[in-house]
Amino acid sequence: MKALKIILSVIGVIIVVPLIIALFVPKDYQVARQAVIDKPKMEVFGYVKYLKNQDNFSVWAQMDPNMKKDYHGTDGTVGFVSAWDSENGEVGKGEQEIKRIIEGDRVDFEIRFLKPFEATSPAYITTEAINDSTTKVTWGFDGHSPYPLNIMLLFMNMEDMIGNDLQTGLSNLKQIMENNI
Length: 181
Description:
This protein has one domain: START domain (Alpha-D-Glucose-1,6-Bisphosphate, Chain A, domain 4), CATH 3.30.530. Helices cover 33% and strands 35% of the residues. It contains 5 helices and 7 strands, in the order αβαααββββββα. The chain has helices at residues 2-22, 41-48, 54-57, 59-62, 158-179, and strands at residues 28-37, 68-72, 81-85, 93-102, 106-115, 119-131, 134-144. It has a 7-stranded antiparallel beta sheet with strand order 1-7-6-5-4-3-2. Strand 3 (81-85) and strand 4 form a beta hairpin. 20% of the residues are buried.
């Protein structure tokens, strides 16, 4: 009987301690990366406001060349939806919708992941003129991990995981824009 109490106490600690720790772990995270592109701001913005163009520079869009894609609405306008479905577990299934456009400055998206997990995250791309022929582009992503799953953020470096993909995508965008591919 004493051994059973010890075992139950240990199991209780194993369950309760992570739940208590998760109370103090942030649930939200933000990741953003920047690139400087040697093209005028309006030319760069005119390219990035179209979701279909992300297929040319986004790492995630290029992970599975066989993924099914579906589009609804008019690209480059609020309400346009780009959906994907992939057998590749790293790509999964989801959709991205343009939620707001500040012409020449910013596009806000809502990314809705459906598989392998469900989540909704806001993302954005901004353009800022450095001078008449150079533009700083920022691509950002906001995420939320609900309690108690937020404890996983202690073991996952979102800055590296998402940030590296954003930076690669921006490098691809820079190459496309500067080489007029």
